[in-house]
User: What shape does this take?
Amino acid sequence: MTPPIGFYFDFLSPYAYLGSIEVEKLAASRGRTVEWRPILLGISVLKVMGLKAVPDTPLKGDYAAHDWPRCARLLGIAHRPDAKVQFASLAAMRAFAWLNDRDAELARAFGRAIFRAHWAEGRDMSAPEAVAAEAEPLGILPASLLAAIASQAVKARLRSHVDAALAAGVFGAPTFAVDGELFWGADRIGQVERWIETGGW
Assistant: This one.
């Protein structure tokens, strides 16, 4: 069986939003599936690497605010340039981890909905209630989701995903894993495609 393409993401990243769309398109064209793998940039970037968040980094923050909408325009992806670039993604990330253990396809649909709501429609997905409302059209009971993301078991499950990503060498989002190789950044999707086509270099 052809191995999936690993997609490490945090809803916090607009580049992960772009990458989520591009990697699904690539996988479909190459007969592969995508395995969504949650991480937390607040852990990898701020705590492990000791860096500032991109919006708080002089020069780089202003560049990124201009760059991600430019990338979205190039790719023809719906976006809101005024979407909130600093928001608490923890509730949505916990919800994904909870759903993914139960139904990976439903979790991916939820992931696409959260990305779209925040980055394409400009609706802040920080609050647990906003996350639950976005999940409800997918048949996910808001009360069940809210109870799950407040549970110690789900909190621990997300931490286990984060620990696994760090152990694998993942530090940013999006990161794509294909055939044992890591490719960081939405702009590396072309390299991922080339790797799949050639078997590596």
Observations:
- Residues 21 and 185 are 13 Å apart (CA to CA).
